[in-house]
Specification:
The chain is an alpha+beta fold. The chain is 22% helix and 19% strand. Strands 1-2-3 form a three-stranded antiparallel beta sheet, covered by helices on one side. A three-stranded antiparallel beta sheet has the order 5-6-8, with no helix packed on it. α1 crosses α3.
Length: 325
């Protein structure tokens, strides 16, 4: 007995097409919102990179940069940001100076013709209070075609001094900051005092208890100097709460040590810690030695025959060492 076959009706087909169109529209809208949110975040990050670059420029040159220093500033830049002359038709990023206020600031163009959009500007406006975003007149940002962050208030006609910038934290990611345990040479710019109610992101530096700290990643309310806080103290001295990568050098109890690999809360000079004491030709129990390395021990010189692990017997009482006549 045959069974009749029934196809889709026109109404069912149209309804299916309508549902697919609605889902596709929602997907495109969500994708567009996410793309513009990411663009706004990147712009904030770029501005904070420019801010740190201006501080490095000051450290090296003893003066704050201006708009005409864009070629010299590019030497400090890493990543995709490259500065160029700022005029009506070109220039997306710049370090500028408000002559009337005597303020150095980092600026970015976010008008449609420079790759911005209404939604990007709205996202920036939403973030303005958290990151201290301003417009080109250094007023609170309100979806303007130029977005900026204050670098330094130096006073009209001045290159140095002035009050510190308290405009807000530095943005996500990016930056030209130095590695752990180092700081820029020369005259160091002042840093904002740590504020428990403010959000900080990776690369921003603050002062706390007379010391300078750099955030490893986004943080709010985490006090610098504590074991579990995401703050790295900028110092050559070893700190148990700091993180160190392979090759980093620290000073501990007046001696220099170099990390074999990533480490945190491992005291230099103890057997089992990933630290090698450097700058000495004396045998050190916590050091490791490769075949051919020579050391002094009890006034005599020895050479390692093969690899020697930390904590092994000292030269003169171990077959791993031979006396050098």
């Amino acid at each position: 007995m045959s069974r009749s076959k029934r196809g889709f009706t026109l109404v069912e087909i149209l309804l299916t097409i309508l549902i697919i169109a609605i889902l596709a529209g929602n997907l495109l809208l969500t994708s567009g919102i996410s793309r513009d949110r990411s663009a706004a975040t990147r712009i904030v990050s770029d501005l904070m990179t420019l801010k740190r670059t201006a501080m490095l420029f000051f450290s090296d040159n003893g003066r704050w940069p201006g708009e005409s220093d864009y070629e010299r500033l590019n030497a400090y830049m890493t990543g995709h940001i490259q500065l160029q002359a700022w005029d009506e038709d070109s220039g997306v990023y710049a370090i500028k100076r408000h002559e009337a206020l005597g303020t150095v600031y980092a600026a970015a163009r976010v008008a449609d013709e420079f790759g911005g959009s209404t939604r990007i500007r709205k996202f920036l406006e939403r973030d303005s209070s958290e990151y201290g975003l301003l417009n080109g007149d250094l007023e609170p940002y309100r979806a303007d075609p130029v977005v900026a962050v204050r670098v330094k208030d130096i006073g009209p006609g001045s290159d140095e001094g002035g009050e510190d910038d308290h405009s807000g934290p530095e943005g996500p990611g990016g930056g030209t900051g130095q590695g752990p345990g180092s700081d820029t040479g020369g005259t160091r710019p002042d840093h904002d005092t740590w504020d428990s109610g403010r959000a900080y992101l990776g690369g921003e530096r603050v002062e706390f208890d007379g010391k300078v700290f750099e955030a490893r990643y986004w943080t709010r309310g985490n006090q610098p100097g504590l074991m579990d806080s995401p703050w790295q103290e900028i110092t050559d001295e070893w700190r148990d709460f700091n993180e160190y990568k392979q090759g980093d050098i620290v000073v501990y109890e007046g001696k220099q040590y170099q990390a074999w690999n990533w480490t945190k809360d491992n005291t230099p000079g103890t057997v089992g810690s990933p630290w090698q004491q450097i700058g000495t030709d004396q045998w050190v129990a916590s050091n490791k030695y490769a075949g051919g390395d020579s050391v002094f021990y009890n006034g005599k010189q020895y050479r390692a025959k093969w690899y020697v692990d930390p904590g092994e017997d000292p030269p003169g009482s171990s077959d791993a060492w031979e006396l050098i006549p």
